[in-house]
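[scheduler] slot 2 assigned
[scheduler] job type: sequence-to-structure, two independent chains
[scheduler] chain ordering preserved from manifest
[runner] begin chain α
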Amino acid sequence: MPRAAALRLAPVAASCWAAAAAAILLPPASPWLAAALWLVVALGAVAVVRASLPATVSSRVAPTRGRFRMPRHAVRRALVVVVLAAAASATAASHVAAAQPAREGVGQLALDGGRAVEVRAEVVGKVERRADGTVAFDARTSRFVTGHETRATDVEISVRVSLRDVHRLSSLDVGAVVEARGSTTPGRAGERAVLVLWASRGVDVVRAAEGVAAMAAELRRGLVRAVDGLPGDGAGLVPGLAVGDTSVVSPALDRAMKAASLSHLTAVSGANCALVVGLAFALAAALGASRGLRVGCGLAVLVGFVVLVTPEPSVVRAAAMAAVAMLAVLLGRTGVGIALLSTAVTVLLVIDPWLAASLGFALSTAATAALLLFARPLAGGLARAVPRPLALALAVPLAAQLACGPLLILIEPTVPVYGVLANLLAGPAAPAATVLGLAACLSAPFPWLQSGLAALAWVPASWIAATATTVAGLPGDALPWWEGWPGAASLTIVGVAIGLVIVLRRDGPPARRLARAASVLLVAVVAGTALGAGALTSVAGRWTLPADWSVLACDVGQGDAVLLRSAGAVALVDTGPAPEPLAACLARAGIGRIDLLVLTHYDLDHIGGLDAVRGRVGTVLHGPGDADAVRRIAALTAEGARSTQASTGLSGSLGAARWRVLWPKPGSRAFPEGNDASVVLDVRGGGIPPTLLLGDLSASPQRVLAAAGALAPPYSIVKVAHHGSADQDADLYVAVQPAVALLTVGAGNDYGHPRVETLTILDDVGARIARTDLDGAIALWSSENTVAMWRERGG
């Protein structure tokens, strides 16, 4: 199939995607959109029929000189594409319209936010552990109970629950039936999940997965057990590379993989599907199977692989594309890849329109399209400067990064500098680790064989892990970029310019030379600006901060990291979810030594950045914790820190300032370790305005704290509890009378923090609200009997 013919299906996929996105983002309008599109289909079909009729005598008359007229066959092809696009779009919109009544009915349960419900549901999505100690999964409901009302339902929801609130955690997997109790909030516009259920009252696994789902879960768990005991980070990476199970990938390695642009290797996608289907084809061919039987074997293996790894959006896209390709083989018409991709995308969006809002689906599609369309031209351009084999190797990751970079900006506003290099180094090891890991997974009935194959897979997996950690540790590994859609659009323009610089020749026609020169100029300006911005947020960053700051909230994403400074002494309250953003904040502030490190509690969004301060801490003040917490404290003391457990009444000095511990109460059974036993500090004097840091306290301990009489209002600054969650005691904020309410929260977080209810409480008490998700880093200090504030985004 010629490329021009293959590209005719691309508008069909694009139109279907746009219509599906419009329908899921504006569900009430989906019936009208579907009706309008079906009308276009009808009119287009009539036009196709008319264009196919024999030409009349008048139509065969030669056109007037200078007048352009499309050939009839071109008109027919264009009309057919329009009809196909309208039909696919109308079907996707009709799907949304048909599902809307049931979704809207269940959505009414969450109109008030926080309504208590009990749900019976089947787990349909991968169970993922979050940085704050919770797990999240998608489930399809069969029953909703609200108050005295019980309703049979069949909609998808998203469940969030603390690990300690899950009964039979080991049985929580895809296919399990659970009962979850808690409060609900509406899902975001465009998401498949109608509601988000915060299971504060726990999740019970009432029936473990059965049948095929149980077999797949046991195979995945068997592979995890097989790598247990293997050394280094490579062991945890094997299940991720083979079957997409990242449960044993350490948080540090996960951050390194993302920083090095290698996280796609553990997100099972097209490469994995191609490997397993190719192996099935080869084996069937070696056994002398016919073409139809080979295709049947490939499809069967593909279905089994999707079940094994769970149907994530990228896996579904890759599987659908592979299925279309095998159908083409069966019919003897092997098509161009972009036609197969367009067909797969269209079919998937018709079946599941909510994929239109899935960033994972978009990333997978963009990467595949880039490889099909741009890898060869980029390789040709690079071959003018480097040997052809190296040019071919560089073109693949470069095409993928240029295509996916704008979408990744929507997640993290940084550009990985060494991503292409990391993929060039790690890419060759991925197929070996995947095939060997998958073989180890399937050889579970033979433990001796499984152990041997897992050990072999560990070798290439360790190479990938070493590449990720090395590249992530290089200086300037990520350049800051604009956030949101403006950032995505601007990076798209820069990506096009980089592509033109590589592809266009210096000695081409004048128009191409001009385009290349403009692209070179744009890339040079952007590179210089980005490097300068990177310097200002790190090495030269202290020049941009107010010299008099005494409280500095670092922008570390969804987590806490607050610096306090008095008379040259520095305290750090929590370390955020990862060491890299904390290290950048410390470098920007010119902080080399932490005199007092306060760990309010041990959720990962508060202690995940510990590696950034190891060996640099004088005293660590910490709350109660489990055995893992004890090990973390011991690691700090082994590197020179002095450990002190916080409890009510403990006090000390920081330079010329004084601090007091207001919470937790020693030996409290009512508020055991965790959020409700967070260390709460009162810090004031020595240039620090009266400051109250509330950790992650919920409303219940907040009420006890307010009643205990230890507070000393008014407070100039209050670090709002738990990133502004809805679980707050309004009376506490009335009592402390905050002048500034500091919200340490990540942009676009999954929890809806800060919640509207909390913002309303803060507005009612007249507090100035400062948020790290909107303002970036926030510096505060005393100035003429008031609190002066500097915001990274807004001054």
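[runner] end chain α
[runner] begin chain β
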Amino acid sequence: MELLAPAGSPEHLRAALDAGADAVYLGGKLFSARRFAGNFSNAEMAEAISEAHLHGAAVYVTLNTLIGDVEMRDLKAYLSFLETLPLDGLLVQDLGVAALARRLAPSIPLHASTQMTISNLDGALFMKSLGFQRVVLSRELSLPEIKKIVEESGVEIEVFVHGALCVCYSGQCLMSSFMGGRSGNRGACAQPCRMPYHLVDDKGHRYNHDGDYILSLKDMMGIERIPDFLGAGVTSLKVEGRMKSVEYVYNTVAAYRRAIDEAERGRQADTEPLVLSLKEEFNRGYASSYLDDHIGKHMMTALAPGNHGVDAGRAEQVKGAVFRFHSSIAEIPGKVTGISYETDHHTMAFVPMKDVEERKGTFTVRYNERPKEMGTVYFVVEGKKQSTAMKDRKGKIPLFLSFEALPGKHLTTTLSDDKGHEVILSSDYTAEKALSKVTSEEDIRKQLGRLGNTWFTLAGASIHNEGCMVPKSILNHMRQEGVEKITALRQEAHEKTIPGKRAISFTPLVTSPFKKEGPHVVVRTTSLDQVEEGLSLGLSHFLFGGETYDHRSIPVKDYEKALSLVKEKGGTITFALPRVVREKNRLKEDALISSLAALSPDGMMAEYPGVIHLWEKGKWTVPLLAGTSFNLFNGAAVKEIENWGLAGAMVSEEATIPQIRDMVKAASIPLSALVYGRTEMMVSEYCVINSVMGDRDKNHCPRYCMKGSYFLEDEKGARFPVKTDEWCHMHILNTRRLDMAPYLGALKEIGLTGFVLDLRAEKDAAPVMAAYRDIVSGKKKAPAPSSKGERDITRGHFFRGVL
């Protein structure tokens, strides 16, 4: 089982290798999902690959962001450069990038990023059919789900084991970009989930009781579950942390290296000291709740989103300006700089060690903010600094040598390593009997063993000298040549193991053609009443179904009714499908999709890759379209889904008008865009309503969401509606409605055909439908944009791009 480590810079790379990583992932200066990490220049990347392969470690380059058409020239040059390197894998999110990588860098195995939201077996099988070597699963899956996908997919499966977690399904978050223009899909997330919010109802009542950081997840720690991962057959365990410290990388990888080695030997590691060492590094508190499908408030770091430190005890005897706590921790290796603790105001406070006195394990603390009685106290630890000097590396490669000097013979040296590689060197220099001073065996050993600035260390030496004087310069040259040759052998041995190009087995879909029409309004709804209302207003295009916002399932009879209503009026109806389907719900959803396909609607809209696998397997002829969850951001991505046989698509909600124009020019299929409605900012397995209202977890929830309306209120008073669907996913909607009515003319000019009104969160939808009908048809002019009365309106990213 591979231990995969983060490498945000060359220093991080060396720390990971030193600690025993089997592989590292790193990004270049462009197109990396950790834009603010140090990252690697082209020269540094080539050196990093050489250094890693010397250790037998793999290098995966992250190219897992969305790429705009204006960036394609740089992307193509970058891919051509990567093709010149012996890379072990390329991690991608953008479908256009994947298509270009197959053409320009065909020797590099492709890995499907977690940003692709592969959350079930159908998705993994589809990526395998596209020639992907590896799939990185969504972090929300439980161990039984992971095990099933591993057993039945036949593709390498990578899962996250340690580090920061997104509260939203990766690849589906728009909150950062809509709030501040920094896109998580572009590697520039501003982490709005780490900001404070209040849960409020429609009357303005606040429900927070245990802190305000109610979207801030604790970090993942799976070190105690290593045997379970091994038993599930997982290929690779990924540690998050390209923007963490060098010490964090070394200490975290070292802890997991020990746990994995013990598990692979069939032994249970003593994880208590390993857990303690992990807590000494930056952490927001730890949880592994997704692995057990145990999702609730215990996963949140509600009091503060920053570093927690090491659990020290509980605040007791709060009197006057002091409190006490008892700690059973015998020794903390790092330097304790202070303690943090929970306050009476549901916040975290810090006290430096100068204000803390200790006597026989009892600590007395002078505080400014009153602590919560029996609240948790933490030691804040400054971890041990790691020397970055090569001479101080602990993970060096053992080298064994033998040397022989015989009068009248060439000097010979044999070097071998721990993997059985051997190099035999013979110098041009002929040894002669020393006239005065014989070079001692100790001096020869010392000179040949000067390996301090390399990744090698002399583990054993056999020296034989029959009275010769041996020049130091000759020994230096032989040592250097030997190191170069043994390095090359090790690198070549690793590079022979890199998988070749994986064959594509996917057969493009053969479906009925989707109706090509001029510009038209599309009503997106889950309500039969809104379908009837739209028809009565003369609208003819509907997108029906998908997730509801009222925690109910849409029965098949409602789809049948919607189809009947629309067809009676000669209209067009497409059935929408959910954005995310976990493996535990896959069979139920697959059965529903099969039932819906049997109804023969005009089309069906996929939101996750597994649907395409179902279409291929079922040989269904209903036209299939791609929804916004596919994050179509460039013309190459559009051409890719065309090659799959998809009949239409919605463009990314982060695309600007010029970007959409480029996609339309590249497309042979009709493209649509969302132009009205409350944008889904997040879709999450976690539910903030359940968490704040105080129940144990989602498995014991009395469904508060069905008894009232709830919102997340930020520090500025903006309220984001919170909805739940039939799968108990939380959907956070934008506080402001998207409304592009004044700019429909510009959108028509660039060639968009579908103007989608998402009315799932609207009560009085008739005026909106009528207004858009009249503008798109040309019956009325679009209203002039105005700053007055538009405080609750957004234009999304049509005019402002994303970082």
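[runner] end chain β
[qc] chain β: The chain has 21 helices and 37 strands.
[scheduler] slot 2 released
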